[in-house]
Amino acid sequence: MTTLLTVARLPLRRAIRDVRYVDPVLYGRSRGVVRRVYREVERDFGMLAPPVALHSPAPGLLVAVWELLRATLLVGGETTRAQREAVAAAVSRANQCPYCVEVHDASREQLGGPADVPVENDELLAVRGTFEYLNRMVTVFLPESPLPPAAPEPVRRTALRMLGSAADRPVEPCPVGRSGTELLADVADVADVVLGARLAAAVRGAVYAALARPPGLGDELPADPALHLAVLVAVAPWRVTPEVVGRVAGGDELVVALAAAGAARAAAAVTPLGGSGRAAG
Question: Where in the numbering of this chain does the Carboxymuconolactone decarboxylase-like domain appear (predicted)?
C-alpha cells in the first residue's frame, strides 16, 4: 500500500484544487514554510491532505493547524492510532461531515479498530477538539467526499483502502508536548493576528454571543460580512454560501482566518478539553 500511495502522490496533490472559495497554494508553487509543511504532511499523513492545505493562503494558520492535527491524531501516547481514528470518524459523523467520515473510517478499518471508542481521557478529548474544528472548515471549503462523485463503487473502495493505508505510517513524537487546549488556542491566536486586533475582538464577541444562544439563528446573524461568515462557520457551517463569502472584502487570507477564528472558538466551546492549557479565547 505504501507503493500505491507513492504512485498516487501527484493525483493526491491535485486534490487541493477541489477547495472552494479560496485558492490554496499548489504543491509545485509552494515555497518556504508552506513547502516545509506540505512535505511534513505527505511524510506523516501519507498525502497532502486538503483539510490542512486549505489553510495555505494564511501560512501561519497552516503551521498551527498541522501541529494541531499531527499532535492529536498522529502522535501516540496512552491511546492507539486506531482509537484516535475511531474518535475522529465518530465526531465527524455527529457533525455530518461525510468527507472526514470517509477518510477516518477508512483509516480505522485499515487498523482494525472498533467503531465505538469512549472519549474518556485527555488524548481522545484532544482528538475531538481537533475534529470539531476541522469538520467545520471542511464543511465550508471542501466537497462531501475526497473522491470524485462519479467514481464507480469498486474504484471508491480501492481508493479508500489506499487512503486508509496511510494510517500504518510511523510518526516521530512531537519535540515539545503541547496540550490539545493549547494547540487549539494557537489556531485561534494566529487567526486573530491575521484579522488584526479590532476585527479579532469583534469576531470573538460575535461568535461567543452566537454560541450562547439556543439553536435557531433567524435574523440574529451579524450584518457585517466578516462577522457573518465567522459566526456561520462556528454555529452552522453548512449555511455558508458563495454569496456569504463573496461579501467579505480582503482576499483569501482573510476568508480563511475568519473561518478559522469561528471554527476554533466553537471547537473550544463544545469540547471540555482537559489539561492545564488555556482555552481558545
Answer: 66-104
> Chain-centre distance of CA 127, in angstroms?
11
CA nearest 280: which of 213, 204, 166?
Answer: 204
Strands (E), 78-193: none
Residue type (1 letter), 103 = V
**DSSP secondary-structure letter at 112?**
T
Question: How far, in Å, CA of 231 to CA of 69, rounded?
Answer: 23
Q: Name 169's Cβ contacts closer than 8 Å, sequence gap at least 6.
A: 2, 44, 45, 46
Rounded distance between C-alpha atoms, residue 109 and residue 40, angstroms:
24
Distances (CA, A) of 115 to 74, 110, 118, 267: 18, 12, 10, 22
d(CA 59, CA 239): 26
Residue 169, CB-side half-sphere exposure with 13 Å CA sphere: 25
Q: How far apart are CA 55 and CA 142, in angstroms?
A: 12
Model confidence pLDDT, tens digit, residues 139-179: 999 998 876 565 556 555 555 555 555 556 666 655 556 78
Measured CA to CA, the distance from residue 233 to residue 238 in angstroms comes to 8
